[in-house]
C-alpha cells in the first residue's frame, strides 16, 4: 500500500462532518424517522439514500477514468467483490434486525449524538458489544481450524 497523503485524515474528518451534517439536516439521525421508513409510513430516507447512491455512483464511475490511483491514499482503483455466501446473508439479516430494533443504522447513530440524542449511546454500546462478540467468535473459530490443520 502506498503512503497516504498528509491530508488524508483531515479530509476524512471533513467528510465525516459533511456526512453528519447531511444526516442531521435531512432528519435521518432521528430514530423515529428511520422507524417510520421501516414501517412504510415515510419514504424520505429512500430519497436520501438514492441521492447518496447517485453521487457515489458517479464518483466511482468517473474517478478511475481520470486517475489510476486514489488521490489521498495512493491505492489503485479496483473492484473488491465480496462473494454472496452464508456469512453475508446471516450478517445482513442480523444487521437488519438490529437496525429495526434500535431504529437507527451505525452512521446515523453517531450523527444522532450530535443532535443531542444521548439515549442512542445504548444502541452504540450494543453495536460495539456485538462487533466484539462477532470478532471473538470468528477468532476462536479460525484458531480451531488452524489447530485442526496443524494436527
Automatic annotation (TrEMBL):
InterPro entries according to UniProt: DUF6691
Query: Record keywords: Membrane included?
Result: yes
Q: Which Pfam families match?
A: DUF6691
Where do the TM regions start and end? Answer: 7-25, 45-66, 87-113, 119-137
| Coiled-coil residue windows | none
**Domain of life of the source:** Archaea
Q: Which keywords fit this entry according to its UniProt record?
A: Membrane, Transmembrane, Transmembrane helix
Q: Which named protein is this?
A: DUF6691 family protein
Amino acid at each position: 500500500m502506498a503512503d497516504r497523503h498528509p491530508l488524508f485524515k483531515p479530509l476524512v474528518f471533513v467528510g465525516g462532518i459533511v456526512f453528519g451534517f447531511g444526516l442531521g439536516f435531512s432528519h435521518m439521525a432521528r430514530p423515529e424517522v428511520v422507524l417510520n421508513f421501516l414501517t412504510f409510513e415515510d419514504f424520505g430516507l429512500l430519497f436520501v439514500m438514492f441521492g447518496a447512491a447517485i453521487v457515489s455512483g458517479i464518483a466511482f464511475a468517473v474517478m478511475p477514468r481520470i486517475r489510476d490511483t486514489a488521490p489521498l491514499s495512493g491505492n489503485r482503483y479496483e473492484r473488491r467483490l465480496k462473494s454472496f455466501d452464508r456469512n453475508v446473508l446471516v450478517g445482513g439479516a442480523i444487521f437488519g434486525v438490529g437496525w429495526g430494533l434500535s431504529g437507527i443504522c451505525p452512521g446515523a447513530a453517531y450523527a444522532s449524538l450530535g443532535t443531542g440524542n444521548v439515549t442512542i449511546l445504548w444502541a452504540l454500546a450494543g453495536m460495539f458489544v456485538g462487533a466484539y462478540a462477532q470478532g471473538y467468535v470468528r477468532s476462536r473459530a479460525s484458531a480451531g481450524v488452524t489447530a485442526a490443520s496443524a494436527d
